[in-house]
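Why Glutamate dehydrogenase? Reviewers of the renewal asked for a concrete example.
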Amino acid sequence: MSVLEPSLVPVFEEVVRRNPGEAEFHQAVREVFESLAPVVAKHPQYADEEIIRRLCEPERQIIFRVPWTDDAGHVQLNRGFRVEFNSALGPYKGGLRFHPSVYLGIVKFLGFEQIFKNALTGMPIGGGKGGSDFDPKGRSNGEIMRFCQSFMTELYRHLGEHTDVPAGDIGVGGREIGYLFGQYKRITNRYESGVLTGKGLTWGGSQVRTEATGYGVVFFVDEMLRDAGDALEGKRVVVSGSGNVAIYAIEKVHQLGGVVVACSDSAGYVVDEAGIDLDLLKDIKNTRRGRMSDYADERPGARFLEGGSIWDVPCDIALPCATQNELDAGGAAALARGGCTIVAEGANMPTTPDAIRTLREAGVRFAPGKAVNAGGVATSALEMQQNASRDSWTFAHTEERLEQIMRSIHDRCLETADEYGVPGDYVAGANIAGFIHVADAMLALGHI
Ligand code: GLU
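Here is what the prediction returned.
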């Protein structure tokens, strides 16, 4: 671990003490703190006004019971969460994650990251996150619907287009947003489009929202390459995961002339030297809700490797797009050995602190999720704009906006890194630029 600036040590200790057992939250806070030394030195008013301590304490945390009935008629029980972290820049904004690993520490780490990510987009959105330990795997459509309805029956009272605007994350896609929106509308008797994003295109959703996170990742990487006088054309890319972020990252890599040779799910990974067949992948994952092993069974020339590590596959560029802490120091060393020169995070915090260090030491350029994957939430903000003006934009126009936003986030990271004496450091650039944007708004709004 790097050494913290001395004035931040007691603040970090306080975070650990006040949030016991929440390792992922501690990790996310520490990573931001490690970037803040030059900021603390330059702007003493942040410390005087306790901005950093206030930022680490969520404005509101909601934990609730989610009972629902399974297809066999048994009552099932889950826990729901919404952490409304910071609203200095706009209504709380961030996704809902339905996954058995979800507990308060995961929701807090995601909510904390979301504050800075949302600030980096330049859009008027605060940071929040929510979810449940509900496991959608193997559940019928009816079970998913009843779960979503029960979840919203409690959560609705905390939401609103000017208050808190959830969206999807792992385990929550268009289908779930539909059931959640339906229940919100029914309970409140309001067609309040702006209360959720990621909606369907026929009922208030935005073009490109589905593709946005993955496309945005690749626009960001393309800008990193351009900055080095290079291009995606002909590059070998490895993408972990096979969910929404991974699928559309693969699509955009292929559109820009690169080739994705591997992707994965929790059971293992597929290597397909001819390049991942996206039509087949989308059919398996989106239509049939199947597994990567099915892909290998149906695609001539593709191999499925159970367990093992996708990072052993040699590549030029690696995009971890699955989940937190999926790329450890061993994986990072394997990537460097395999010739990888860029790692950009499509998921939230997929790279462990040790892995980031290993990549740096090996000279691999590394860009953090809060900058790289901000295209999803940025397009959510575009969806809110369209809802507010009862308008809907074309695919081409929306994609152009997304591309501009991603290229400008990239540039802001590098400019900020330069300004604070850490040139080329995307982690510091993203953390500092996001932090200053929120901190200045907090200063302006007084002691709240
Ligand atoms: N869950 C996504 C993220 O991690 C999107 C959030 C949103 O669109 O509000 O940023």
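The chain has a mean pLDDT of 97. This is the kind of structural detail the renewal will allow us to pursue systematically.
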